[in-house]
Amino acid sequence: MYFPRVKDMREDHDLTQVQVAKYLGICQRTYSNYERGIANIPAYCVKLLSKLYYVSADYLLGTPDESGPYPPKK
């Protein structure tokens, strides 16, 4: 499945695929496959990426449209 925010966040933080792959403990080719939607991103990688970029895992995966916490229920 393709998650464009994963690539967008990496670029917004001026990081290379090699740098992020090293942070995740994987090879650059595997990370590239995640960005292109060729391979599914494992949950542990989503968790690490959300910590790296200071956003929720939901935001990385496409919902909600805001990177902050969910708004309180009314």
Brief overview, please?
By secondary structure, the chain is mainly α.
Give structural notes.
The protein is mainly alpha-helical and 74 residues long. The chain has a single domain (4-58), classed as 434 Repressor (Amino-terminal Domain) (Orthogonal Bundle). It has helices at 4-12, 17-24, 28-36, 43-53, 57-60. The chain starts with a helix and ends in a 14-residue tail after the last helix.
What does the secondary structure layout of this molecule look like, with pairings?
Blueprint (H helix, E strand, L loop, with lengths): L3 H9 L4 H8 L3 H9 L6 H11 L3 H4 L14
Distance, first to last CA: 33 Å
For the record, the CATH class is Mainly Alpha
* Strand residue content: under 5%
By DSSP (H or I, 4+ residues per run), the number of helices equals 5
* Oligomer kind: single chain
Question: How much helix, percentage-wise, in residues?
Answer: 55-70%
Could you say what the CATH architecture is? Orthogonal Bundle
Say how many strands there are: 0
The H-and-E topology, N to C, reads as HHHHH
CATH topology descriptor: 434 Repressor (Amino-terminal Domain)
Structural class: mainly alpha
User: Describe the biggest sheet?
Assistant: none
